Amino acid sequence: MSTRILLSAALLAAVTTMPAFAQPAPAAAPAAAAPAPSWQQGRSNEQASSTLHPFAPHMTGRPAKDLPIDKLKVPAGFKVEVWADDVPEARSLALGSKGTVFVSNRNAKSVYAIVDKGGKREVKTLLKGLNSPNGIVFDKGTLYVAERHQITRYDDIENNLDNAPAGKLVVGNLDPQNQAGHFWKFLAMGPDGKLYYNVGAPGNIVMPSYFQATISRADVKTGVVEEYAHGVRNSVGFTWHPVTKALWFTEHGRDWISDDTPHDELNTAPRKGMNFGYPYCHQGDLLDPEFGKNKSCAEFTPPVQKLGAHIAPLGLRFYTGKMFPAEYKNNLFIAMHGSWNRTTKQGYNIMRVVLDAKGKVTKYEPFLEGFLTDNKGDPPMWGRPVDVMQMPDGAMLFTDDYNGIVYRISYSKK
User: Fold this and answer.
1) 158-162, long-range: CB within 8 Å, 24+ apart, which pairs?
2) Structural domain boundaries of the chain?
3) Across 64-210, where does the E strand assignment appear?
4) Are 110 and 86 within 8 A, CB to CB?
5) Rounded to an integer, what distance in angstroms lies between the CA atom of residue 117 and that of residue 10?
6) pTM for the full model?
7) Mean pLDDT by 10-residue block, N- to C-terminus, for the chain (414 residues)?
8) Fold of the domain spanning 68-411
């Protein structure tokens, strides 16, 4: 065997037996970019560097004694006070037949029960481990809870506040796509005895599937579901007129068109099957830059009232009590969560809507103000109203999820 062959064989053996650390390492794969949060969907290239962003609540709440409650302003004769604090991320309200006030939250996992003991309120954690239980309603002894994926009932709940019964499924499969946007539900019992709930659009401005961007209703006995209203981007509050029994609801307009458009909406749907325009038309007269092509806003039902751009209307109720002055009878009160997708912030208040006999708005004005402190601040406010509810004595409760507080508004001629 030649010397050249022996040297080649020796070299090959040396290379193949080199330790692994001597081998050149493969280039590392680039890290996958984190997906953009859902609230950024729909931004234009010019808006990509915008610093506007949503405001997260204080998830553990803040003690009322540490807050400027005296800054809250209501009309003469009215009084606003803290009714209960230590209710983390207090959202929707429901009233039991025995006086229990039920409170939900959205980002957390609990439902609370507030009971009055000798003039003092006790907050009980009623349900735990739920999946965004934003929607609640009480009817005939039963508490209904809407999570992002289902609606469940808890029977005879007021007799079991310290040991809640197991829930029974009413409607399931409400979030089959595990959508990132507008997954939280609002819940209300209609005068027809059916359970109404919303399914929001799965993004800021996208084409929804057949059951999204709707208000639907379910027969609580059979579980049969039907879509009631379509083209509703995201409603987190609905109620019924005390005289006409027509459905009224708030709706959030899309983000990332401009500071001043589109307006959020106050709508009414007196009958099944109406379409309110999303994603084609906003605020009744503004075609969407993308989805509105070859469309006309005349195809859809316009709002009863434009509420303001990005003002985030949530819970609403008609006032039917006797405590407030007579001119407040059948007025509509709307909790405004407040804007984030706007350079100059607005909202963070409760608005009063006065209607005539035909349902036309004759007055739209602030009723409670004082949470907004700096309309260009970050954050611009110290509290955010979410839901309103009339109590048996005629007083009004409202929630503040930013601090985890329930407030009471009362009236006295004195």
Assistant:
1) 158/96, 158/97, 158/98, 158/100, 161/100, 161/113, 161/115, 161/124, 161/126, 162/124
2) 68-411
3) 78-84, 93-95, 101-103, 111-117, 120-127, 135-139, 142-146, 151-154, 168-171, 187-189, 195-199
4) no
5) 93
6) 0.92
7) 41 40 55 79 95 96 96 98 97 98 96 92 97 98 97 98 97 89 96 97 95 97 95 98 98 98 98 98 98 97 98 98 98 98 98 96 98 97 98 98 98 88
8) Neuraminidase (2.120.10)
